[in-house]
DUF4178 domain-containing protein
Amino acid sequence: MGFFKRIRSAFGKDQEPALKPRTLVNLKVGDIVSYELIDYQVEGVTLYLGGTQQRYGYLLNDAGNRRFLLVESKETIRAFLYENIQARLENPEAVNYEMVYDGVHYYEKVRGESKVDVIGKSAFHTSDLVYWWMHLSDDGRGMLIEWQNGETIIRVGAPIKAEHVTIFAASE
């Protein structure tokens, strides 16, 4: 070790570089997302490819309590925190303009199709086409319906504010 390298090392200049700050659009598997006093670990990342905006989906886990965080990046970041519900649809044609769950009426806001790129755990297969529908209730709650290769996932949740989320990066 050279003389100057030893001096830098003695003053802490050779320390590991700081982790890149995380936002809701660059989370990685292993990161911790804290919201409303609950810490979730990111188990999977889904990037929805196609359309005019970037969409990111994160499978979150808190001791077996799984949630799905959907983030849309436009001029501002919009995020919904969902939980899966036990419901099935036989085919995508069964998705109606109005969907009712637990006494709440949800109305179709937008629909689309995307190829997905998946890292970690996911219900989806990488590069296969996913059809999705986003429904909103009058009070702003959301229902997300996704269909791929005969499998349907239905989620309900609510919008969250990005500034209320704390992120702890697990790795570079």
In short: The longest helix spans residues 3-10. Residues 3-168 form one domain. The chain has a mean pLDDT of 87.
